[in-house]
Design a protein that fits this description.
Blueprint lengths: L4 H15 L1 H4 L7 H10 L7 E5 L4 H13 L3 H9 L4 E5 L13 E2 L5 E3 L5 H10 L1 E2 L12 E4 L10 E7 L5 H18 L7 E7 L11 E6 L7 E9 L5
Parallel strand pairs: 1-2, 7-8
Antiparallel strand pairs: 1-4, 2-5, 3-4, 6-8, 7-10, 9-10
Helix pairs in contact: 4-7
């Protein structure tokens, strides 16, 4: 299975149908314009999560994001999904904020914390206090990063590979795109507690073998009429 335009369209459309089925009925999801228009239509949903980041550590952040998503109740997860899992990343030290703000999850290292999904009004005091997390440096992995996800697997842990298209990917971009991918993969059951996840960075996701359990799809910056894959999740070869 290769990353064809048809496959990328199917994954992008499936994400919209799961989050906002009513919008999928009024837009032509077979075109790039139709797919991007839905994102604009979704502006009526102001539900979001605020993530406070003291420092970015890939392993801790992936584990924390998965644990946070797995701990959401169904109602809150669905409300957040209607806003396409919108997340605001702010720079700050969670340890200095826990007495003033409620966090739904704090990373094991204490370097990151997530609020529960809520309205913009509910998050306003925290957003006024802190600035956007900058994350301007490029995300560069020295090699494969193996991450044991938190939680107890129901049986043998599944081994999965998360491929990142690394060309020009900043830490801030990784927070956004990888956050959406991980959260929605957890909600869809494509990633489960206790899985072993190998993060692998490539210049482009060309030739990456499928099938794909999750894809993060965007508009190709070189051609606005085409899509491209930014990240993917698939099973490790031989792990059937």
């Amino acid at each position: 299975m290769t990353l064809t335009q048809r496959l990328l369209h199917d994954h992008a459309a499936r994400r919209i149908i799961r989050a906002r089925p009513e919008l999928a009925q009024v837009r032509d999801l077979s075109t790039v314009d139709g797919l991007t228009a839905v994102q604009q239509d979704a502006g009526d949903e102001d539900t979001a999560v605020v993530a406070v980041v003291r420092r970015f550590d890939l392993v801790s952040w992936v584990r924390g994001t998965v644990a946070f998503a797995a701990g959401l109740n169904r109602r809150r997860a669905q409300e957040w999904r209607r806003a396409f899992t919108r997340t605001v990343f702010l720079a700050g030290n969670p340890a200095n904020l826990t007495t003033r703000f409620d966090f739904a999850h704090v990373a094991e290292t204490g370097a990151m914390a997530w609020t529960a999904p809520a309205s913009a009004a509910a998050h306003r005091p925290l957003r006024r206090l802190l600035r956007t997390f900058p994350g301007t440096r490029d995300l560069t992995l020295g090699g494969d990063v193996v991450i044991d996800l938190p939680g107890e697997p129901p049986a043998e842990p599944m081994r999965r590979v998360l491929h990142l298209a690394g060309s020009g990917l900043t830490v801030a971009g990784a927070l956004v795109h990888l956050g959406h991918l991980l959260v929605e993969a957890v909600l869809d059951g494509a990633i489960s507690p206790g899985d072993r996840l190998t993060v692998r960075q490539l210049p482009r996701l060309v030739g990456v073998p499928g099938p794909f359990d999750a894809l993060r799809v965007g508009v190709d910056p070189a051609d606005p009429d085409r899509l491209h894959a930014l990240m993917s999740v698939s099973r490790e070869a031989g792990d059937d």
